[in-house]
Amino acid sequence: MARTFKTLKFAWVKGHQDDNDDTPFEQRPLPVRLNIACDRAAKECMRNCIKPNKRARPMEGAGATLYLGTNMVTTDMKEQIQYAAQLPQMKKYIKKRFRCNDEAFEEINWRALGRAKKRLKLHQSIRTSKMIYGWLNIGVQKKYMGQDSTCPCFGNATETQIHLYRCTNKKMRDTLNSSIATVESKLVQDGIPSTVYNPFIGEICHMVGVEHPDSQYDIKSESHKTEVQSQRQIMKEAILRGILHSDWTRKLHEQWKPRPPTKDGKKVHQKDAMEQTVSLIQAAWTIFENQWGQRNEILHGNENELLVSNKQQKFKRYMELRRDKYQKLRRCDHHMVEHPIRDVIKWSRQHMTAILRNLEEMHKQYLRELKIEEEGLQPITAFFSPVRAASPPCQGDPG
Description:
Number of strands: 2
Strand content: under 5%
Number of helices: 17
Strand order of the largest sheet: 1-2
Helix content: 55-70%
Low-confidence stretches: none
Distance between the termini: 149 Å
Structural class: mainly alpha
Radius of gyration: 37 Å
């Protein structure tokens, strides 16, 4: 450029000046306006996923240039190479797992999802991956292994992933309502405008069956329709998994405003649109973590509906063996069912399980011995010897 434009002067221009104050665009110097315009055009190109049809020419002075397809990679090369290497198989799996098409896959904000994932601890990251792809160890998964698929909190429904949010157990519902209120406050603290967090919270309430009393959660309003409709086109329950449509980020970019400085003139840090999208994802994951924690607390506590029902079934089986001990157990084993009922009621679940396990083995042994005994018995006719039938008497014989 210097050789072409002889009168060109080089000057350093501080970037992103529009992020720090509210000075109107027209009142800024020309170099600053050009810098802002170029920055906005670059971001718009990135958000609209405008892909080049051919490779751009290498930049002069560059020792080497990395291309992935038609894209010239200039930053985050390691991440981009990893993305290109893993994308085909990952894309194939996700499309099959969630039954989404190419268009829906491309509209998911994977970059924000990746940022949020990197900030989790290892055990949280593993659990979140299971939640996203539907691998949690819940009832529907246990059913494949021949185990009870009933919800431990409700006891009368199959435990699916969406049931974690819709379970009518009082503690589960209280936890859900508390989580929604907490994440709403956090989103406000992160500077997310109400025009974004209102439809976001409203859609979550709609998915989990919560009727929020505040009218601001009306997801049918015209101002909220775009993001909500786009979100629903991705995949089922995507918002609860933290899988967000890129329209949320676009809306955040449109609504973004710098925070006013403090009274002493200090600048206040403000998250950009991408970081605010990360906050939305973290909000969805926070709700999941709270529901999962409450569910496990009930599962391993005394309020577990499965344990209560299971203990009742075991007690019923014990009483059955006690009642029919002469038809189900050997005489030498009768003492195992002759405990006082007042003591049996006080037995722990583990002790009852151990006793029943022994009784079932004794019952099987009784059946085996009964079978052997029956096979050794013969009917009384087996002891009879066949004899020749007597000849009929001849005519004229006496008597």
